[in-house]
Design a protein that fits this description.
Blueprint lengths: L1 H25 L16 H10 L2 H19 L5 H21 L5 H24 L8 H36 L1
Helix pairs in contact: 1-2, 1-3, 2-3, 2-4, 2-6, 3-4, 4-5, 5-6
Length: 173
């Protein structure tokens, strides 16, 4: 019983960190005036949870981040886009994590960013009932590759730091 409570509290902490990053990132003006382009820094937490816990835990963190983050930023309209991209991204990264070693976290993140952008475009095509939004895809993919690489490297650093501090705590215990 105590372990499940600790696990739930840990996931709530990760969801909160992810949401705070999401809300702060929403305040950063993007220099490129293309809808959907952003840094995706909250994905660092999602990728970390995906590495250290289960897929369903990462899904819970992602879902809470999107719901609460959209509510707090006043962008509930974009919630559908975020869910479409986020779910495709998460399950694609989960599949890649299963086959690739942790050293390739940057690559997993880039693939996740690409899948996120594809999910967003598919959602936009569905909502707007037009295929014209597909012209945004090359720009989204380019920015996704750049930001995905950065978030993947940051997640890899976070995983390494987590493991080092965990080893130090075990030594001192």
């Amino acid at each position: 019983m105590q372990k499940s409570v600790k696990h739930l509290v840990t996931l709530a902490m990760f969801a909160t960190m992810s949401m705070v990053i999401f809300v702060l990132e929403a305040q950063i003006p993007v220099p490129i005036p293309i809808p959907g382009i952003k840094l995706g820094l909250a994905n660092i937490i999602t990728l970390f949870v995906l590495q250290k816990y289960r897929v369903w835990d990462a899904l819970a963190v992602l879902t809470m981040r999107i719901l609460l983050g959209s509510l707090f930023t006043g962008t509930l309209v974009s919630c559908f886009y975020s869910f479409s991209g986020g779910l495709l991204c998460l399950f694609g990264m989960a599949l890649l994590c299963h086959f690739l070693h942790r050293k390739h976290l940057w690559f997993i993140s880039v693939c996740g960013a690409i899948l996120h952008n594809i999910g967003q475009i598919l959602a936009a095509m569905l909502v707007m009932q037009t295929t014209q939004v597909i012209w945004y895809l090359p720009f989204l993919l380019l920015s996704g590759c750049i930001t995905g690489c950065f978030t993947g490297l940051a997640a890899a650093f976070l995983v390494r730091h987590w493991e080092r501090t965990k080893k130090k705590r075990q030594i001192t215990s």
